[in-house]
Amino acid sequence: MLGRADSGDALWGEGVGWGEAWPAPAKLNLMLRVVGRRADGYHELQTVFQLIDRCDRLWIDVRDDGRIRRVGDLEGVPEQADLTVRAALALRQASGCALGADIRCEKHLPMGGGLGGGSSDAATTLVALNALWSAGLSEDELAEIALPLGADVPVFIRGRAAWAEGVGERLDPVELPEPWYLVLTPACSVSTKDVFSHPDLTRDSKLITLADFMHGDTVNDCLPVVRREYPEVRSALGLLDPWGGRLTGTGACVFAAFPSESEASAALGRMPAELGGFVARGRNRSPLLDRVAAQTAV
Ligand SMILES: C[C@@](CO)(OP(=O)(O)O)[C@H](O)COP(=O)(O)OP(=O)(O)OC[C@H]1O[C@@H](n2ccc(N)nc2=O)[C@H](O)[C@@H]1O
Ligand SMILES: Nc1ncnc2c1ncn2[C@@H]1O[C@H](COP(=O)(O)OP(=O)(O)O)[C@@H](O)[C@H]1O
């Protein structure tokens, strides 16, 4: 888990030189309703995704020998289970490309935090390799390959803040305010699978509209279960009470919105020193879209 003292904060914005890195931004779920369950066990959701300017960074070298390799380790994730490797294999299969890749991922996003880091790494790998291999797949085709890798991967392929339905594959871009967020990263990892299989999870929320959300309906149906099962999340949320703290996805991260960076930073400064957290800006457009445009212009 990365704390606030992390010197390698990966943000994007004015004056940030990306070099050869491919950004993989985090997301927040600004609300999340569980509105049904499909025959295959997956849950139907309504959610609003917004990107934030906190990113993992990937470096990818094309190989001529067709091998796909992860460079470096990721604690608890074997190479063949790594979503970057699985994404590259899926793209190679779908495109029939004979090339390979060495993939290095510099993690800045906590795993199992509800920030979608692994999903974003997978999406960035798909988008980057589609360009680097000149595979020529469309955005729709990439989104189709993305979904079996994880319900959250398509939104990172599209790279836009979105109103989402289904399991997250039906996406409508939305223009939202772009506040500053204080994100707290409790020292625990929440399993998405465990939350969705919990007997007490609400699974029949009524459908709402984008207008309802805009008027302040920001319920997260996973919250009661996560708050009960994970004391670290419960206490982090309590700390954000004065600013209306929310859970992102199935957690473990919690967040609150502020009108300015200085107010968000001041609130972070009031948090216990041992609790990890960071300040990031909400974004409606992913830096990945600019990075791929720069690549294809070369
Ligand atoms: C809940 C959300 C909201 O954005 O975020 P996270 O908190 O995980 O970041 C996502 O829908 C998560 O997407 P993702 O993390 O890609 O989940 P997946 O790997 O596809 O699913 C992990 C497991 O959770 C369950 N699952 C997931 C999504 C869903 N709509 N219904 C489910 O029942 C399934 O048991 C699945 O095997
Ligand atoms: N490159 C990767 N980065 C992060 N997690 C990965 C990666 N590859 C596989 N995983 C697995 O995916 C799980 C979910 O990761 P992540 O997307 O970061 O969390 P969340 O779905 O809660 O937002 C991790 O706990 C890990 O086991």
TrEMBL record:
Enzyme class: transferase
GO molecular function terms attached to this record: 4-(cytidine 5'-diphospho)-2-C-methyl-D-erythritol kinase activity; ATP binding
EC number assigned by the record: 2.7.1.148
Reactions catalysed: 4-CDP-2-C-methyl-D-erythritol + ATP = 4-CDP-2-C-methyl-D-erythritol 2-phosphate + ADP + H(+)
Pfam families named in the record: GHMP_kinases_C (PF08544), GHMP_kinases_N (PF00288)
Keyword Kinase appears in the UniProt entry: yes
Superkingdom in the source lineage: Bacteria
Sequence ranges assigned to domain GHMP kinase C-terminal in this UniProt record: 210-273
Active site: 27, 152
Pathway: Isoprenoid biosynthesis; isopentenyl diphosphate biosynthesis via DXP pathway; isopentenyl diphosphate from 1-deoxy-D-xylulose 5-phosphate: step 3/6
Family per record: Belongs to the GHMP kinase family. IspE subfamily.
Protein name: 4-diphosphocytidyl-2-C-methyl-D-erythritol kinase
